[in-house]
Design a protein that fits this description.
This protein is α+β, with helices and mostly antiparallel strands. Helices cover 16% and strands 46% of the residues. The protein has two helices and ten strands; from the N terminus they run ββββββαβββαβ. Strand 2 and strand 3 form a beta hairpin. The longest helix has 17 residues. The two termini are 24 Å apart.
Amino acid sequence: MELELIRTYFPDGTNGELLHNNKRVCSTIELPWLANKQMISCIPEGRYELTKRYSQRYKHHLHVNDVKGRSLILIHAFNDALKESKGCIAPVSICTGEGKGNNSMLALKKLLAVTSIEFDKGNKIFLIIKSVN
């Protein structure tokens, strides 16, 4: 299974649309692009394998694997990238500003519902990140 994240970059954050089979799953928010610097930048465009992950802090969420120069990049719920992210991706129901959105928990549940079907079948899931340009 492949998910496609189409990004738009802004000075104060990165907004995106997450698609599966060209259909919108949810919007996304991230930190601005700052040359892949740890803790302050979104990750580079590319193709990444996703795996499911659980932690006490974020409960059920996804791990973005093998990001060059980075570790523990997750897809988990948050609504303000500059205040709450250290390089991760948040699904949101709607973007409300640069790197800001709302109803992230609801959007994450929707994304996990889509991916869990494939994980349960033993299928791999890949995230392809590219820009709108």
